[in-house]
């Protein structure tokens, strides 16, 4: 995971910082969309877009999420399979 820093950091530190940034963006996006009809996928899509606007990046993240939700966090499997992702405007 790539993050901007002034000094060289380890891969682990980069992932920790990146996850913290994504968590903050997810919470910010949830707050911004509060009261609007937005699915979890739309919130994730919008938060990822704030982190990196590249559509290929976002698509690749959703591919990883598909594996996680289908095979590891199976409680979300049905929700993921019914998602029709579209960016919230």
Write the layout of secondary structure elements.
Layout: H1 11-32, H2 40-51, H3 55-72, H4 77-81
Helix pairs in contact: 1-2
Q: Helix-strand pattern, N to C?
A: HHHH
Indicate the structural class.
mainly alpha
Number of strands: 0
> Could you say which overall geometry the principal axes of the C-alpha atoms support?
globular
Distance N to C terminus: 27 Å
Percent of residues in beta strands: under 5%
Could you tell me the mean pLDDT? 83
- Tally of discrete structural domains: 1
Tell me the radius of gyration: 14 Å
Describe the sheet with the most strands.
none
Low-pLDDT stretches: none
Number of helical runs? 4
Provide structural commentary.
The chain has 89 residues and is mainly α. The protein has one domain. Helices cover 64% and strands 0% of the residues.
Short description:
By secondary structure, the chain is mostly helical.
Q: What attributes does this structure have?
A:
89 residues; mainly alpha
């Amino acid at each position: 995971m790539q993050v901007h820093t002034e000094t060289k950091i380890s891969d682990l530190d980069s992932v920790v910082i990146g996850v913290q940034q994504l968590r903050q963006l997810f919470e910010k996006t949830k707050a911004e969309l509060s009261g609007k009809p937005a699915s979890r996928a739309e919130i994730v899509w919008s938060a990822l877009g704030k982190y990196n606007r590249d559509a290929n990046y976002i698509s690749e993240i959703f591919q990883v999420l598909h594996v996680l939700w289908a095979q590891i966090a199976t409680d979300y499997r049905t929700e993921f399979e019914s998602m029709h992702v579209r960016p919230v405007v």
